[in-house]
Amino acid sequence: MEGLSGQERKLATVLFADLVGSTGLASDQDPERVRARLERFYEAMASEIESAGGTVEKFAGDAVMAAFGAPASLEDHAERALHAALAMRRRLREVFGEELELRIGVNTGEVVAGRPREGSSFVSGDVVNVAARLEQAASPGEVLVGERTVAAVRGAFEFADHQTVEAKGKPEGIDCRLLLRALSLMRPRGVAGLQAAFVGRERELALLQESYGRAVAEGVPRLVTILGDAGVGKTRLVRELWQWLAQQEPQPLQRTGRCLPYGQIAYWALGEVLKE
């Protein structure tokens, strides 16, 4: 919904990251060297954020704020933000080794988004404040994630147990979880708790089952490509095959790899299969 001022309400995910260890570093080094190192930090973090489809909201000293799903809408903004958080942590290690660490907070909710302008914020709302509080509560090297973000990415990431952190202005605290790692499991879709009927794809399922049977009988791998417009049921078809395979004797080893909808990693899906 867009207002007369050009602002609009959006569901988005906000990421706050703070560089731990830079204050001590700055006190012991020449200001120009410190500035050059901070520029390397800015460039590296901006590259990972933008590769994941996010927008750098601002850099402030040794901290960065980014938005996913605003100003440009993204269906998977929460997932992109968490992939970006993990990538930022890896990239920092590549650039600075073990010398510096990030603490990161990620939160999802409704924001008011305006047009990006140099030197000014373009997203606002309580979701921004909560993301900042999560970042402040995180220990060096940790990524704390709000529960709404956790719910939005269910099945795609592994988290630690629920915890509540104290936060200024939040008497009841903030519910969150520690991000552990990305997963490559097939993510659930639809409304939880409801069993959907499988209708109209029996022929395609039979072809997949036949291909599996031939691969087993011949001892030769087979490649099957499923093509179709968005929403026609490709994921549901594969899920039905997955359930059928789980009932076979002997049960085959099943592994899944997913391609991200962004980035330039050609073999991401194969890499996920190997990591599993």
Short structural description:
The protein contains 8 helices and 9 strands. With 276 residues, the chain is of the alpha+beta class.
Protein described:
- This protein has 276 residues and is of the alpha+beta class.
- It is 37% helix and 24% strand.
- The chain has eight helices and nine strands.
- Strands 1, 2, 3, 4, 5, 6, 7, 8 and 9 form a nine-stranded mixed beta sheet that branches.
- A hairpin with a 2-residue loop joins strand 8 and strand 9 (170-182).
- Helix 2 (31-51) packs antiparallel against helix 3.
- It is elongated and about 70 Å long.
- The two termini are 42 Å apart.
- The mean pLDDT is 83.
Task: Give keywords.
single chain; 276 residues; alpha+beta; nine-stranded mixed β-sheet; 8 helices; 37% helix; elongated
The number of strands is 9
> What value does the average pLDDT take?
83
Largest sheet: 9 strands, mixed
Overall spatial form: elongated
Q: Low-confidence segments, ≥5 residues, pLDDT <50?
A: none
**In percent, how helical is the residue content?**
25-40%
What Rg do the Cα atoms give?
A: 22 Å
Q: Which range does the strand content fall in? A: 15-25%
Topology as H/E string? EHHEEHEEHEHEEEHHH
- Terminal CA distance reads 42 Å
Q: If helices are DSSP runs of H or I spanning 4 or more residues, what is the number of helices?
A: 8
Given helix and strand content, the structural type is: alpha+beta
Topology:
Elements (H helix, E strand, L loop, with lengths): L7 E13 L1 H7 L2 H21 L3 E6 L2 E6 L8 H20 L4 E13 L9 E2 L1 H12 L5 E4 H6 L4 E3 L3 E5 L2 E13 L19 H17 L15 H12 L22 H8 L1
Helix pairs in contact: 2-3, 6-7
